[in-house]
Amino acid sequence: MLEVFEMTSTHVMGADRPARPLLRKRILVCGKGGSGKSTLVALLAMALEQRGDSVVVLDGDASNPEGLVRLLFGLGVREEPKPLIEFFGGTRRVTCPVDDPAPLTRVGDRVPVPERPIALARELGAEYMLTRGVLRLLQAGKIETYGQGCDGPIEKVVRDLLIEDAVVTLIDEKAGVEHFGRRIPERMDLILGVLDCTRESVSIARRLAEFARAMPPGTLWLILNKTESEAMTARMLELLGDLGARVIGAVPLIDGLTQTALSGDRLDAHLAQGDVEPILDRLETIAAEAG
Ligand SMILES: Nc1ncnc2c1ncn2[C@@H]1O[C@H](COP(=O)(O)OP(=O)(O)O)[C@@H](O)[C@H]1O
Ligand SMILES: [Mg+2]
User: Fold this and answer.
1) Which residues pair with 31 in a beta bridge?
2) Structural domain boundaries of the chain?
3) pTM for this model (two decimals)
4) What CA–CA distance (Å, rounded) separates 52 from 54?
5) What homologous superfamily does CATH list for 3-8+21-290?
């Protein structure tokens, strides 16, 4: 394998691990449409679940009904989680962060959520989440009705939904870079750009790197996805140039993943376990070094 992937630390399982450096971190996953953001979020969440780390997946993609519900739980679930934007009073109360940068607040409260984070079990009813052991899925909100308006208010929920509990928060964003224009990454600890093996993803990576200049060093990292051969991985790294140093792993093209998209079954985490574990190890190392 190529040099960039050799820096992976040794994977240590579950209770033996002294520290869990990703706890309380907010990790935003972004990239072009179809690059594999939701799939990577689900795979990382399941890998964390396997390690026994409490993980909250926040679905921040307002346009993709049931995507993560299917990936994490399968389509047999009784109901989708109630959109969090309703907890905050709906789109009539929550504003777009461009029109109004004021932080998200609870209904009838003045203290912004980022100053007093949400206590999951105490504040949010069970209807706002799908739960399986240490794993929870929350949804920021969805565009459900014709003429509903822009998804800016939903993005404010993504930006400001800080959680009091000791959890890893994985946030699945919509495609493209509009959320950067809205300064959504402001409250993120890590940003993961998912790149499929296309020139478009290389261009998006460059754009992400420009945005990352406004963030603390070590915030932006890249994951290659759907690599079909070592030659393809090498070509992507060549095209990425200096940005190759930010690549923390690669997930190959896996046949079974597409099949479950049609069956409605939840993702079989074992299909990519060998590729995702080292990425999680690497993220833990990065988080530990950042403190
Ligand atoms: N590593 C992979 N191997 C094979 N198929 C993949 C892989 N990653 C994603 N896919 C497939 O690509 C499609 C888009 O993935 P998805 O995670 O929905 O992308 P995004 O959330 O970025 O739009 C889905 O059909 C998914 O099953
Ligand atoms: Mg998606």
Assistant:
1) 176, 194
2) 3-8+21-290
3) 0.92
4) 6
5) P-loop containing nucleotide triphosphate hydrolases (3.40.50.300)
